[in-house]
Amino acid sequence: MSEVIATYELKGKSGSFEKKAEGMALGLTVGSWTDLPLLEQDQLRKYKGRVISVKEWEEAGGHRGKVQIAYPGHNYSNDIPAILTTVFGKLSLDGEVKLVDLEFSKDLKDGYPGPRFGLEGIRELTGIYERPLLMSIFKGVIGRDLNYLENQLRAQALGGVDIVKDDEILFDNPETPFVERIESGKKVLEEVYEETGKRTLYAVNLTGRTSDLRDKARKAKELGADALLFNVFSYGLDVLQELREDPQISLPIMAHPAFAGAVAASPVYGVSFSLWLGKFLRMAGADFSLFPSPYGSVALDKAQVMSIVHQLTKEDDQLKRTLPVPSAGIHPGLVPILVKDFGKDCVINAGGGIHGHPDGAIGGGKAFLQAIEAVIKGVSLNKVSESHYELRKALSLWGEEVKV
Questions:
Q1: Is 186 a catalytic residue?
Q2: Residues 195-205: pLDDT tens digits?
């Protein structure tokens, strides 16, 4: 049967959840039922939402319930905006209701592309297979010129990072225009490659009016861009899917979580982080998903973070895996716990933890790589720091190894 099954958590009085669930199933589909003539019931039966399960429990402050409702595929076009409007449009305005998950029948799920490259494809592009990837971020570049950006990119690449991404708030502007950023970035990284033999990728921030994005992304591809950073929740999941599906773009897409908290942060309203930053991003085609780590400067609850990672990386016959990118407040002392929690198939993403090193971004990148190598080899950071001064300086500045 073609359908999506929505799981909600909601507040209510004891014994009220069965009636609430039935009201939701009808209100979001055919509107009413028992007062319809039998002939109309027969005609509308295949459009009627159906309640699958209802669970209730008591907690401090009242009762909560978990409700599952199936919505027939006849009711909507197979795109995320239509489905979200169906299952959570007006319902999102109706008090404390949280959309926890959506399960798609196989025929509907077939309509979503998933990542073009995925975890395995990104490893092929970088040539890094046996450890987490290391990514750094441009910092303090607003109002700066292209020369400043080039110098910062060069330092990050010389530090050995695998990927450098634009800051999500770096938009197309007269000082560092989109096309020039790509061209100069390509030149700088080619020079570093010739000097060191290390190939670093650069993800340029794709911004502007929605109607211009496809052409800008195609232009980026023509110019030899390595990847795109995209503020997906400011533009919409369907825009991400359009970019992913365009054969003339064919670039890895890095989904930034900016604005996601407005929809997902509340424990009782909105959409779950696992659905918003996990399942939806993977289905729509993100190769990378950035999200706050459980122990950085903008920390998410660890259970929420691991639910995001599960959705991004669980085995799926239809979709490639999306790379998890735990972010915010990451420094070399956190590398052991990052690898413990996320394994080697993740991206370690640092801004201040790279640029704030006493030896600048070059020293910051080297310190992270020394920490990563130590963890992969099963050696403590403190032991390795005895013979690697970049890591020693980093641990002195940001604190000793975080114990796992």
A1: no
A2: 999 999 999 99
